[in-house]
Amino acid sequence: xxxxxxxxxxxxxxxxxxxxxxxxxxxxxxxxxxxxxxxxxxxxxxxxxxxxxxxxxxxxxxxxxxxxxxxxxxxxxxxxxxxxxxxxxxxxxxxxxxxxxxxxxxxxxxxxxxxxxxxxxxxxxxxxxxxxxxxxxxxxxxxxxxxxxxxxxxxxxxxxxxxxxxxxxxxxxxxxxxxxxxxxxxxxxxxxxxxxxxxxxxxxxxxxxxxxxxxxxxxxxxxxx
Length: 225
Prior knowledge:
Elements: H1 3-11, H2 22-35, H3 45-68, H4 71-74, H5 79-91, H6 97-103, H7 108-111, H8 116-127, H9 143-146, H10 149-152, H11 163-168, H12 193-196
């Protein structure tokens, strides 16, 4: 080797670096990884979906129940025979007993209790198109057939007054002489509430079959029917 070649060999940088301890580096990396918090697990999507579905069902059920309490529910599907009842409820006609109830904020189910067995039988009758109607085809029953003292004078109605308390306040009704009281009839209680009081028909003062009494507002005498 010449002198120049020896100098070049002596001055050339070495490309061999210091030895690396790969096992130590791996151990350090493992230690670092061990010190980090474990990644959070994502909540299962199925539980979220189930919760949303349950919430929707609850809200829908609550909304349905509120609608179920409204008169509009009655004829939403059962147009026959319920259309006439809802129409008269909304009419504001002073001759109809239902108007007084509507103005007082009373709805159908405040009088007609929604018992499950009754509703099932009503649905079955409607599906089979097997239910009785009045001769004019508007109602299931007339007021005379339906309105009894047991039904009309329940303690939860009329401000909690009993039938006797209601009767006591009717002497001299509608500006008539104090000796007249339609609930204290000389016919010895032969009349039922429905003979005079009618929710979806014109109310009639049966007393005027014989007497000539002043009629309550919106009422009729029997001879004008």
